[in-house]
Design goal:
Blueprint: H1 4-11, H2 14-25, E1 28-29, H3 30-34, H4 41-53, E2 57-62, E3 65-70, H5 72-89
Antiparallel strand pairs: 1-3, 2-3
Helix pairs in contact: 1-4
Length: 91
């Protein structure tokens, strides 16, 4: 995992959480993601960079476009961490 701190930093922003929800439905380009927000495309690229650095999203070039998708294995690790934390906290 990229590091739990990087993951939590990435998840702390509502825009990034919304991007992850969108990617849950299907892979999208940065332009398709940007069309859903009222912020600049460079800002979307910055958010995507943070998500990539936290290994929460993966990018793949298809022709002239770069598609972003969820990295479900990292999300599963985070959920496993939360589950373990909750189990120990319930004692």
């Amino acid at each position: 995992m990229a590091g739990i701190n990087a993951t939590f930093q990435a998840l702390s922003d509502p825009t990034r959480r919304e991007i992850l929800k969108m990617l849950r439905e299907k892979d999208l380009t940065a332009g398709e993601i940007a069309d859903h927000f009222r912020i600049t495309r460079p800002s979307i690229s910055h958010h995507l960079s943070i998500l990539k650095n936290a290994n929460l999203v993966i990018d793949e070039r298809k022709g002239q476009f770069i598609y972003y998708s969820l990295n479900t294995s990292v999300l599963e690790e985070v959920m496993g961490w939360f589950a373990g934390f909750m189990d120990k906290g319930g004692n």
